[in-house]
Amino acid sequence: MNKRNISWEIILAGFAFVGLAIYLISRSNGGPHAPHPPHHAADSMSVPHPPLPPSIVIDLQNLESLKNLRNLKNLKNFENLEELEFELKNLDKIIEHRDQTAAFEESTELSVNQALQKLEQELQQLENGDFNIKLHDKKVFINRRFEVEEASWSEVSPGVFVYRKAFAMPENHNMKLNLGFGNVNIVGTDSSGGEIVIQATGDVEDPKTLGDNLNMRIEKHNGDASFSLSSAGHSQFSDRVNLEATVRIPEQTNCDINTSGGHISVTHISGKQRFVTSGGHISLDELRGETFAKTSGGHITSDFIEGEAALATSGGHIRINKANGRIKLSTGGGHINIEQLSGEGEAKTSGGNISAEIASLNGPLDFTTSAGNISLLLPRSVNADIRARGTQATIGSTFDFSGTQTEGKIEGAINGGGIPIKAHCGYGNVSIKPND
User: Fold this and answer.
1) What string of DSSP letters covers 258-320?
2) What sign for the dihedral angle of Cα 60, 65, 67, 68?
3) Residues 6 or more apart whose Cβ sits within 8 Å of residue 38
4) Given this model, what pLDDT does residue 106 score?
5) Which of these ranges, 35-44, 158-167, 339-348, has the smallest mean pLDDT?
6) pLDDT exceeding 90 applies to what percent of the chain?
7) What is the C-alpha to C-alpha distance for residues 150 and 145, in angstroms, rounded to an integer?
8) CA–CA distance from 135 to each of 111, 116, 139, 142, 143 (Å)?
9) Which of 14, 84, 178, 328 lies at 20 to 30 Å from 368 by C-alpha?
């Protein structure tokens, strides 16, 4: 079989939230990567180099992920690691405090790129060094490229196995992935085809062990593609192995993704999409179209989502940085935070707070919590009918409000009325203020 030079790249779209933080920390503390080898003297020529990390991801909105840089220190003493860490922290502070000048932000990002270039030069000098480094969407990706055989398991470094399969995938077609266990990364690209790369680590002796203990099924029909991967028979292989599947497909693709026990990360996809996990976090970034996402035990975060979105978790938080369109959010026991919404929305939690900043409103809002507070920031010029109830309910005095207001109830109109807004706390306070 021919060997192809590929880039093993794990993009975690929009891991700028608590769920992604937990994921990245778990990876750096003994997650899917091979365990760190014991320390040896640097001048011991008889000791082989430790396994090279397949990928390092640093989320600038969660500096805990800088711990991933320590994986590089196992390879060699890099002079520029401390410089890079310092510059990344500076850039993160600018992202957090938006009042910084644009010129200062541009200057700091330039210094980060210079530090990345120096680090990449050092990485290329390693034996068999072949790395890509880039800064994209507030995240740094340090990826090692591997040569693997097409459609077969290959050991790319001690304890790290990779399977790669390229497939035809025209735009506006359907891609389905069912992973019996493990993490999933979906990446939209401007290419005309698709690629699935699966990484396996853990208690694995050789590639044949993976082939004997994993059932893989690939189906292609009229431009659509379907993949499924699970433990063979009744084996408990999933208890011994960590899987991570990265799928690159055209941005205009309809997705149906399911994993029974892992995280899901999606970036740059437009279409009709469904993402379901039984026990992990979901990270969404740059999604457009119609989106359904559900997790039974994790958080959901989104950097940007447009269109119709229904996001649900049974026991985690939901955080949306920016949304355009109609959103429906539900959690059984967490907080809901919406940084900027243009459109309409519904949010419900059984045991947490709801906070939302509305940039523009073209449909109803309906927010409910059984035991928490609700905080709404609305445009001062909004035309809305307000119904709010809680232990206490307050509305900003600078609104042009007409109606009735008591200690725990507000009913009336802003600027003559219009779009209905409901906010109900079973036990908690409601606060409605202008966003300017």
Assistant:
1) EESSS-EEEEEEEEEEEEEESSS-EEEEEEEEEEEEEESSS-EEES-EEEEEEEEESSS-EEE
2) negative
3) none
4) 66
5) 35-44
6) 50
7) 14
8) 12, 9, 6, 9, 12
9) 14
List the structure tokens of 169. 């995938």
Place of tokens 């609700």: 374
Residue 368: what residue type?
Answer: T
For residue 120, pLDDT over 60 is answered with yes
8 A C-beta contact, residue 394 and residue 338: no
CA distance 414 to 383: 6
pLDDT in tens, 177-197: 999 999 998 989 888 889 998
Q: pLDDT (tens digit, 9 = 90+) per residue, 231-277?
A: 887 678 888 898 989 898 999 999 999 999 889 989 899 999 999 99
Distance CA 303, CA 284 (A): 7
**Structure tokens that stand for 416 in this block:** 């003559």
Name the phi and psi angles at 87, rounded to 5.
-70, -35
- DSSP annotation of 128 reads T
- How far apart CA 111 and CA 23 sit, in angstroms, is 28
Return the closest-CA partner of residue 263 out of 298, 302, 237.
298
